[in-house]
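Suppose a colleague, Dr. K., hands you the sequence of a protein chain of 130 amino acids and asks what its three-dimensional shape might be. Before reaching for any lab equipment, you can write down a predicted structure in token form. Begin with the sequence itself:
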Amino acid sequence: RMLALCLALPESGGAYLARLGEDHFTSPRLRAAFLRLREHLDDPLEGLADADADLINVIVRLQAVDDEPATAANLEFRWMLLERDRLRRELKHAGDDGADAARTVALQRELGHLNDVIASSPPVNGPLAR
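The predicted structure, expressed as tokens, is then:
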């Protein structure tokens, strides 16, 4: 939904795309769409060829999503949800890569703060808001 909101609000969406990283997306297709939108938000389909059919399909589907109002508040909320999920994944794998205890604690604090902000945010219209 975040990418669909960025498409619907390109003037604000571009700034959010700049804040996002590839690690915010676990789906290879959404990651590819994110990379495309980050560079070609104004016309994401321009220059794509038949060989890019999968990417074209994802972008067209994102353009068709309209189950949530395209507002700055919803963009911010969706960004927080993606960031929360990214932090959860990073925490889950922190021990796998030998992260030190201080880094793990910092991630836990950041995640806790973000969870508090999400919980105190006004409701977002749309399915599966939280």
